[in-house]
Design goal:
The complex is a heterodimer of chains A (about 450) and B (about 100).
Chain A (H helix, E strand, L loop, with lengths): L8 E3 L2 H17 L4 E10 L3 H14 L7 E2 L8 E3 L10 E6 L14 H7 L11 E7 L4 E9 L5 H15 L10 H5 L14 H18 L18 E7 L2 H15 L5 H19 L6 E8 L3 E2 L10 E8 L1 H4 L2 H17 L2 H11 L7 H9 L8 E7 L6 E2 L2 E8 L9 E8 L2 E9 L5 H16 L2
Parallel strand pairs in A: 5-6, 12-15
Antiparallel strand pairs in A: 1-4, 2-7, 2-14, 3-4, 6-7, 8-16, 9-11, 13-14, 15-16
Helix pairs in contact in A: 1-11, 1-12, 6-11, 7-8, 8-10, 8-13
Chain B lengths: L1 H6 L6 H16 E2 L17 H15 L16 H15 L1
The chains are: A alpha+beta (about 450), B mainly alpha (about 100).
């Protein structure tokens, strides 16, 4: 997109504002930002100089990567102020030397600096939206973390961005070759199914969605951290990577149990049961477990889809502790709830509600959600993002040995299971707030999760 | 459901169902160009699980038949034509 055709401001999407609400909560209550992180575990020969050079070109051509997020006149929907981007510093790229040589056998540990980044505060009003950390190990291999303010990309967009950077490095794309649709998506409301509806109609639909949220609060949801409280955000994550044979077993079980179409519900059921095991160990029985599942709103098909901004809606699931005890029954219940929600138009209604929230004060959405869910945001966070960076095998000269997502989890609920597949291996990232789970509880969660995924 | 009531299951020929499935996909669910045909690969055209469910709901509303999710195999989701054949089969079985 040429600079002459570029707008001065780009509105945040409803999804962006939803995440911005939790960013405001993270700042106000937990002294951090609400970030997400994509990690690449690279082989030897990563070229940091080439990476810095290409990134600088990409940032010059795509000002959203350092555009301050502001709210014009204090009342209009917030925007990425593209016109001010050039005054802002480009995303930081920091090189770190690993403190110790990698272990001779087994997988190298996750760098501590990655956890620290997930808990940093980003200056959104100064255009600090994205940063990179590269840890070089003595054997020449590297780990790279891309950490960003969660509204800049959604999970799918972040992968598209990384794949695009690699294609620029290979000379197959150019830093300035994104069409507006490929960069930003068709419009702020294109995915919600009601782009032509009147403001009044959209308000009615958003109210329907709000009623649904309120109904979720009737059976008091519980999380391992308990309702929101003022604590410093201290997130860490662990990663389990299953081998090809184990992964094939899990994938086959997912298809068999949840069907060809919705294996995600198999993984969701396993995540809920793993958290339930800890509640039981503690002797607690909440009224229900409530878990949100992000749904991609990008147009399906020929349209390239958007790199930047969030293009998601949310499906909410609610089950009681009794329903969790039988794995097959739980999967069947989740399937039923998914179908009923889609039939009732809740994907579209959720998107409309998030769009309407663009006009509300930034903390409003998180405040309302927590009020309706009795102080909770969810019982745990969950995502299954399927194939991670399919078709991208290297990054700036280094083979990609593995890769996964580690999005921030709010200190309440304090625990989230994020799963994805990379070249036939299942990655299970468990993001958690320090202190929410004791060591033996984390071991139990892992044990229960693997037992359900792998079966007898 | 009105269309199904008016038309009756026995009047849904394979051709009519193929046309119905194809039109729903082309006009409502997928962002595709003129190269999209009833024989095009649905997965390659961008069909995902949400779109399949929305497609099944649209078929139920217009043809009055809910396709058993157990029938959603890669083969039956290969193309609009294959899916229509599967729906037609189910219509014949349920009468």
């Amino acid at each position: 997109m040429s600079s002459s055709s570029r707008p001065a401001d780009l509105p945040l999407t409803g999804g962006d504002c939803f995440l911005r609400a939790f960013d405001a909560e993270a700042r106000g209550w937990h002294r951090s930002s609400h970030c997400s992180q994509l990690v690449l575990r690279l082989g030897p020969d990563f070229d940091p100089a080439a990476f810095r050079e290409r990134l600088a070109e990409v940032v010059r051509a795509n000002p959203i990567l350092r555009a301050p997020i502001v709210r014009p006149w204090g009342v209009a929907p917030p925007v990425y102020r593209l016109a001010w981007a050039e005054r802002c510093a480009p995303p930081r790229v920091e090189l770190h030397q690993a403190p110790a040589p990698p272990p001779v056998t087994g997988v190298r540990p996750l760098p501590e600096v990655f956890f620290a980044r997930l808990n940093d505060v980003l200056a959104l009003r100064r255009g600090e939206l994205l940063r990179f950390d590269v840890v070089r190990w003595a054997d020449g291999r590297s780990d790279l973390a891309m950490t960003w303010a969660h509204m800049l990309f959604d999970g799918s967009g972040s992968e598209r961005f990384v794949a695009w950077l690699e294609r620029i490095h290979r000379g197959e794309r150019r830093p300035d070759d994104l069409s507006p649709d490929e960069a930003f998506g068709a419009s702020e409301t294109a995915g919600d199914g009601l782009p032509e509806a009147s403001f009044r109609e959209r308000g009615r639909v958003a109210t329907l969605w709000q009623s649904r949220m309120k109904a979720l609060g009737a059976r008091a949801p519980g999380s391992l951290a308990g309702p929101r409280r003022r604590v410093r955000q201290r997130l860490r994550y662990t990663l389990d990577t299953l081998g090809p044979e184990e992964t094939a077993r899990v994938v086959a079980r997912a298809r068999e149990r949840a069907g060809f179409l919705t294996p995600v519900l198999f993984y969701l059921a396993a995540a809920i049961r793993a958290h339930d095991a800890i509640f039981r160990k503690r002797g607690l029985e909440p009224g229900s477990y409530v878990v949100p599942l992000p749904v991609n709103l990008r147009p399906r098909g020929k349209a390239a889809g958007a790199l930047f901004r969030s293009h998601v809606s949310i499906l909410w699931f609610q089950v009681t502790p009794d329903q969790v005890q039988d794995f097959a029954g739980l999967v069947a219940e989740l399937k039923e709830q998914r179908l009923a929600s889609i039939k009732a138009g809740l994907v579209e209604h959720g998107a409309v509600a998030m769009d309407m929230a663009r006009y509300a004060p930034k903390r409003c959405y998180a405040w309302m959600a927590r009020r309706m869910l009795r102080g909770e945001a969810a019982s745990c966070f969950f995502a299954f993002t399927n194939e991670f960076l399919p078709e991208t095998t290297s990054f700036f000269g280094a083979p990609i040995e593995n890769g996964f997502h580690a999005p921030a989890v709010m200190p309440s609920p304090g625990s989230g299971a994020i799963m994805s597949l990379r070249e036939g291996r299942l990655n299970l990232a468990h993001v958690h707030q320090e202190g929410v789970l004791a060591d033996d509880e984390r071991a139990l969660l892992r044990e229960r999760l693997l037992a359900d995924l792998l079966g007898g | 459901m009105a269309a199904a009531t008016a038309r009756g299951a026995e009047q849904w020929t394979l051709e009519a169902l193929t046309d119905l499935v194809f039109r729903i996909l082309r006009d409502e669910l997928l962002s595709v160009g003129p190269e999209f045909t009833p024989r095009s690969s649905l997965v390659e055209s961008g069909l995902d699980s949400l779109a399949v469910t929305q497609l099944l709901l649209a078929i139920e509303e217009r043809a009055g038949v809910w396709l058993d999710e157990g029938l959603l195999t890669p083969e039956n989701l290969a193309s609009a034509e294959a899916l229509a054949a599967c729906v037609h089969e189910q219509l014949l079985q349920t009468g």
